[in-house]
Design goal:
Blueprint: E1 2-6, E2 39-48, E3 51-60, H1 66-76, H2 81-85, E4 88-89, E5 97-102, E6 105-110, H3 117-127, E7 135-140, E8 143-144, E9 160-164, E10 170-172, E11 175-181, E12 187-194, E13 199-206, E14 215-221, E15 228-237, E16 244-255
């Protein structure tokens, strides 16, 4: 069993961009192939309005140390001033602990006491995005709970969760948008707006399931615009009056 020593403080989802398929259309991959101290873009699962919400961070570590480096970095990192103003917080209190990974299960040994459901969701979403981690089990006072996945935290997951691209990333058109949704008839509406708020593109995608069951979506959105700041807005259009429900905004920089 390989032990990855880490301080489990805040918890956040690590995505080594070169090692995963999503986000492949971003202008920078977030990692440098062959470099032992490669810069890696990671997604940090903070919380907003009581639900998990990913934000962007960068670490410098080889692949085999990505978990410990990410957790160490995230235990020191709290929401930035800009993130705090946007409502981001973390439910995971700073504490010491270990992470052991074997057979696809990450066993998180907390230093003392149990974590709240929201804090557990942050941990689970973080670690199950890592290569080789499929489930997370929490070990509290020597007692190991059952392995968990994101499916165990529907109450802590927003109706629309955009997992890629991450806020602040540089992207090219078409913008690849990936995530999960639990919305009416599985329909996720998408707007792309410029810095002045004007709509550059309006479209939609369909998740693999909806109306009470969470599904996944993976779509590309063509943006007929010059390079600059844009915001992808994902939402459910109300069947009653067309109003926007469960709105998620992802600010990005569009490049050629």
């Amino acid at each position: 069993m390989g032990r990855v020593s880490a301080i489990v403080g805040v918890v956040v989802c690590v995505v080594a961009c070169a090692a995963c398929t999503r986000g492949g259309d971003t202008a920078s991959s977030g990692s440098t192939s062959g470099a032992d101290d490669a810069a890696r873009t990671i997604a940090v699962y903070l919380a907003r309005d009581g639900k998990v919400a990913p934000v962007r961070r960068v670490i410098h570590a080889p692949q085999e140390e990505a978990v410990s480096s990410a957790l160490d970095a995230l235990t020191r990192a709290r929401p930035t001033a800009e993130e705090r103003s946007a409502g981001y917080v973390t439910a995971v209190p700073p504490r010491d602990g270990d992470v052991e990974v074997a057979g696809g299960v990450a066993r998180v040994v907390t230093g003392a006491g149990s974590l709240s459901r929201l804090a557990q969701a942050q941990v689970v979403y973080t670690l199950t995005d890592l290569p080789g981690v499929e489930r997370v089990a929490f070990v509290v006072d020597g007692r190991e709970g059952r392995p968990l996945t994101g499916h165990d935290f529907e109450a802590e997951t927003p109706q629309i969760l955009v997992r890629s691209p991450l806020p602040g990333e540089t992207v090219r058109s078409p913008i690849r948008l990936e995530g999960t949704a639990n919305v009416f008839e599985a329909t996720v509406s998408i707007d792309v707006r410029n810095a002045r708020g004007a709509i550059l593109e309006r479209t939609f995608t369909t998740a693999t399931s909806g109306t009470g069951t969470r599904g996944t979506f993976d779509t590309r959105v063509d943006v007929p615009a010059r390079p600059g700041d844009v915001t992808v807005v994902a939402y459910e259009a109300s069947a009653k009056d067309g109003s926007h429900l469960h709105v998620v905004e992802v600010p990005l920089e569009l490049t050629r």
